[in-house]
Amino acid sequence: MRKYIHIILIVILSVSCQVDNIGPVLDSNIDLIFFMEDGIDVNENSTEPILVEIGSIKGGNSAQLTLGGTAVEGTDYTVTGDLNLSFAEGIYSTSISISLIDNLNPDDDNTIIVSLPEGQGYSENSRREFVVNIINNEVSSGTVVSAISASNDDVEEGATGPLDFDSSDLELGEFDTGGTPDRGLQTIGLRFNGIAIPANVTITSASIQFTTDTPGSGAAELTIYGENVGNATEYIDVDFDVSNRPKTTANAVWAIPEWLAAGDKGAAQKTVDLSAIVQEIVNRADWTADNSINFIMVHTGVSVGVTANDAGREAETFDGSDAPVLTIDWEL
């Protein structure tokens, strides 16, 4: 009789030692599957995948995981791995991976609850569920500063259509460039990248800061539009590629003050407020954070027909010494 009891104890102990940290195992629970941990707290903007490890008392077990909680799969997170668990003989652990999706919008904290079927886990309240507490840590306002970062992102379109990508300055008005023919009143295209602003927030201010290359004092007026797309592409070497792009309804008229000296970078070189233009773009259905915005600057009003050499302003470019800089303030 003692011999049989001794054999039974050896079997139970050998099974219970095949998975770490499972606590005491009773022979009536020999088919248990359980989570190795109860859960985790994690910030919404975490980029590290969450490893969910599942153990089995013996090989050959199987179970179906289910997903619940307030977070939405595909919107707030994705899962890698098979939710239909199957432990081959001799295999006592497996795992799935959860990756969070950061939508950059402040919202409520959320949960992901990964569950085993009833009857699994140490008990109905122990190791049958793995709970991910997603803590929202997004800010409710911010400032984005983006400088022109490539030659193809600040361009001049001549009056007859050709684009200039490599100029060291932007003519914001009429200048005799010395070419044949003169390029006339040029349309300016500016592209700013990596605009980390969530969709549908409120734009409280926006402006572009230029730096003087050559001063000017004559009459000069620009009407500024945005390109009416959710993610603007770089300009290409096709005639009229700036002016032919779709424009926002919102626009702003900039009567450019006198520019006094080369290198000046102050209030006179800063555009009027462009927040309505940016607002129209970030409200588009195809806008997402980190997209690019194009601005299209067209001569209007007193600029039209002006031919005097000092009637405009020359601003530095990316290929010059000081690229234009866009600054946007936003809030929920």
Notes on the structure:
With 332 residues, this protein is mainly β. Helices cover 7% and strands 36% of the residues. It is built from two helices and 22 strands. The protein has a six-stranded antiparallel sheet, covered by helices on one side. A hairpin with a 5-residue loop joins strand 12 and strand 13. It is elongated.
Helices and strands, in N-to-C order? HEEEEEEEEEEEEEEEEEEEHEEE
- Biggest β-sheet description: 6 strands, antiparallel
Q: Are there runs of 5+ residues with pLDDT below 50, and where?
A: 1-28
Question: Using only CA atoms, what is the Rg?
Answer: 32 Å
Q: What gap, in angstroms, lies between the N and C termini?
A: 76 Å
Number of strands: 22
Strand line-up across the major sheet: 13-12-15-20-18-19
Shape: elongated
Proportion of helical residues: under 10%
Total helical segments: 2
List the helices and strands and how they pair.
Blueprint: H1 2-16, E1 33-35, E2 39-43, E3 50-56, E4 62-64, E5 66-68, E6 77-80, E7 84-86, E8 93-100, E9 110-115, E10 129-135, E11 141-147, E12 154-157, E13 163-164, E14 169-171, E15 187-195, E16 202-209, E17 212-214, E18 221-227, E19 247-255, H2 275-282, E20 291-299, E21 314-316, E22 325-331
Parallel strand pairs: 2-10
Antiparallel strand pairs: 1-3, 3-8, 4-7, 5-9, 6-8, 9-10, 11-22, 12-13, 12-15, 14-21, 15-20, 16-22, 17-21, 18-19, 18-20
Question: Main attributes?
Answer:
332 residues, 2 helices, disordered N terminus
